[in-house]
Design a protein that fits this description.
Blueprint (H helix, E strand, L loop, with lengths): L3 H18 L21 E2 L12 E2 L18 H4 L10 E3 L2 E3 L3 E11 L5 E10 L2 E10 L7 H12 L6 E7 L4 H5 L23 H12 L6 E6 L5 E9 L4 H7 L6 E4 L7 H7 L4 E7 L6 H17 L15 E2 L2 E5 L4 E5 L6 E2 L4 E6 L6 E5 L4 E7 L2 E3 L4 E7 L36
Parallel strand pairs: 7-8, 7-9, 9-12, 10-11, 11-13
Antiparallel strand pairs: 1-2, 3-4, 5-6, 6-8, 10-12, 10-19, 14-21, 15-17, 15-20, 16-19, 17-18, 19-21
Bound molecules: zinc ion.
């Protein structure tokens, strides 16, 4: 891992840019969504999936950082990206040395297949000619999530090593074994993203996680883990970030107009393990599994390229429209009956409390059940039209205000009421809602 001072340098670089150029950028217009100032109100996030980790309730003792607060830069940006001699250093990674100003494709070999054949995964490295932080991009930790793979390809091959300050590591397919089988999971049905930072003598998943973490992740100064929705659900491009961590907050401020959802990471996720190791990490969710969605891919690429600019790593600036909101709370609306799901809203729709979200129709007796929004807010994730079972999480509503639920006995909305119930049993796979 890079030294602590390196990390601080990175973060102060981000902060400096924010302070220099973005006083009205992302947060200024989000006053209504900022956490309370008195530090006493707990901000409840009612998302029930442990994947987003947002089932937890932020206690007053663990306050969220006020994104609007000033974080005075310790080191000016110019100093942060330019060392005394103005020279970048070779990057030592995976038994290779990547000189400044070069691109290299390496291989990371995590484990062996049952046949004893090594499985190696490409690791793309651009070490810039100029000094700066190391940003890591990881995709397809879930093997059926394709959008991130294409994002990494576009970003890595668009970088010019001669003009880059710092280094970018891109791992397009972390879970190669899942990818080959078009599966979210490893061959043993384990979710790799529940086993970080891993264990060298644990299960296959724990060993893969350990190898990846110790050989690659610890070289990062910041990490972006790319995901999509799971099980035929799709997500509006959004950052999942623990807004109680000031380093993570700083990182989220570099992505341009991208929705941010506060969620404390579930233990075992790459985001959790990296952040715990002092490497600020966010998850970028965009689109759904098993498809390549160009609109979502383009949004992700633009967001990350904006981050590279914010970090002072590239000169190219990307322009955005109005900033997107930060959601401190969200909830899932679940199907109470099985049948044919047809949505009445689309991804990104703004909804009001009581609005019709979709209909589930029993194909045998033609009985219909309607799903209504329990809150005013935004559809930040939703199931594609499909046949659903009772209990399936269908609509993910980012909650705009502090309204109370529409009704206590809500036939459609049970998720918010028992956020921790099914998650409190341990770290094992639960619902696979996302990251
Ligand atoms: Zn995922």
């Amino acid at each position: 891992m890079k030294s602590e001072s390196r990390l601080k340098t990175l973060l102060s670089a981000i902060t400096a840019v924010m302070l220099l150029s973005c006083t009205a950028y992302l947060w200024a217009s989000e006053g209504a969504l900022n956490p309370p100032d008195d530090g006493t109100d707990s901000l409840q996030d009612t998302t029930e999936d442990s994947d987003s980790g947002s089932a937890s309730v932020a206690s007053p003792a663990d306050p969220m950082v006020d994104p609007a607060a000033d974080h005075p830069p310790v080191i000016p940006l110019a100093d942060a990206v330019t060392t005394a001699d103005g020279l970048a250093e070779p990057l030592a990674l995976l038994n290779a040395e990547i000189p400044p100003g070069t691109y290299k494709q390496l291989s990371w070999t995590a484990t062996e297949l049952f046949e004893g054949v090594p499985v190696s995964t490409p690791v793309l490295v651009v070490n810039g000619k100029l000094p700066g932080p190391t940003l890591c991009l990881t995709a397809a930790v879930h093997g059926d999530e394709l959008n991130g793979i294409e994002m990494v390809r576009r970003i890595m091959h668009d970088l010019d090593p001669q003009k880059l300050s710092g280094a970018v590591l891109g791992v397009p397919i972390v879970n190669l074994q899942g990818f080959r089988r078009a599966s979210r999971y490893l061959p043993d049905r384990r979710d790799l993203n529940r086993y970080f930072p891993g264990n060298p003598s644990g299960s296959a998943a724990a060993r893969i996680a350990y190898s990846f973490f110790t050989e690659i992740v610890i070289h990062c100064d910041a990490l972006i883990d790319l995901h999509t929705g799971s099980f035929e659900r799709t997500n509006l491009p959004q950052l999942r970030a623990d807004l109680r961590n000031p380093d993570v907050v700083t990182l989220t401020q570099g992505f341009g107009a991208t929705v941010i959802l506060h969620s404390s990471p579930a233990k075992g996720t790459l985001r959790y393990a990296a952040t715990s190791a002092g490497i600020p990490a966010v998850t970028l969710e965009a689109g759904g599994p098993s498809q390549l969605e160009l609109k979502e891919v383009k949004h992700g690429v633009k967001g990350i390229e904006t981050l590279l600019h914010t970090l002072g790593m590239v000169k190219k600036k990307r322009l955005w429209g109005d900033p997107e909101p930060v959601y401190y709370r969200s909830t899932w609306v679940r199907a109470d009956r099985g049948g044919i799901l047809l949505a009445d809203v689309s991804l990104g729709s703004t909804v009001r409390q009581g609005d019709l979200l979709g209909t589930i129709t029993d194909p045998m007796n033609n009985a219909s059940t309607r799903l209504y929004s329990p809150y005013s807010g935004r559809i930040i994730g939703m199931a594609r039209n499909q046949v659903v079972m009772p209990g399936f999480a269908v609509f993910h509503v980012g909650i705009q205000t502090d309204e109370t639920p529409a009704n206590e006995t809500g036939t459609d909305e049970s998720a918010a009421d028992d956020p921790l119930a099914e998650e409190s049993g341990g770290d094992d796979y639960v619902d696979g809602m996302s990251e």
